[in-house]
Design brief:
The protein is of the alpha+beta class and 155 residues long. It has a single domain, classed as Electron Transport, Fmn-binding Protein, Chain A (Pnp Oxidase, Chain A). The protein has four helices and seven strands. The protein has helices spanning 2-11, 15-24, 62-69, 112-123; strands spanning 27-33, 39-48, 53-58, 72-79, 87-98, 134-139, 143-148. The chain has a six-stranded antiparallel β-barrel. Strand 2 and strand 3 (53-58) form a beta hairpin. The two termini are 23 Å apart.
Length: 155
């Protein structure tokens, strides 16, 4: 057990590494649980603002329905092919629904930053396009776990 804990600490990302990693990645995997206890996981684009993970979800999706009943969520962002390249971040907590649902672009000061970041990162645009089918979920994580197996081969 002690060996595993030391290794776990060695491969953890620093807060700065987590911020940088989440800023570069585009796709996450979101896990929810339905009212009858069925788990669900699906891929989704996201943006990280340094404090919260913002998810732009279809409002007529199982994910949205699950979170309306039980707002607890786990999100994994990871990459790497070979064992020594694996790295990622798991964020968990409770989501908040932000803005109108579905989002039509009504002014909402709390969405200025995530929409600007999301539009630039995912669409190469200055402003967020709204399709009347998606809306915002904000996860300010209560727990963050990270790993970077590339650190096992460093120095």
């Amino acid at each position: 057990m002690a060996t595993e804990q030391r290794r776990g600490r060695r491969i953890m990302m620093t807060p700065g590494e987590i911020d940088s990693y989440l800023a570069r990645q585009r796709t996450c995997r979101v896990a929810t649980v339905s009212a009858d206890g069925r788990p669900h996981a699906g891929a989704l684009w996201f943006v990280w603002d340094g404090t919260s993970l913002w998810l732009y979800s279809l409002t007529r999706s199982r994910r949205w329905s699950d979170l309306r009943v039980d707002p607890r969520i786990a999100v994994v962002v990871d990459d790497g092919e070979e064992y020594g390249e694996l790295r990622g971040v798991e964020l968990s907590g409770t989501v908040e629904f932000v803005g109108e649902a579905p989002r039509t672009g009504e002014p909402h000061p709390g969405l200025d930053i995530p929409e600007r970041l999301f539009a630039a990162k995912n669409f190469d645009l200055d402003t967020m396009p709204h399709d009347g089918r998606h809306a915002w979920l904000r996860l300010t994580p209560s727990a963050v776990v990270s790993w970077d197996f590339r650190k096992l081969t460093e120095g």
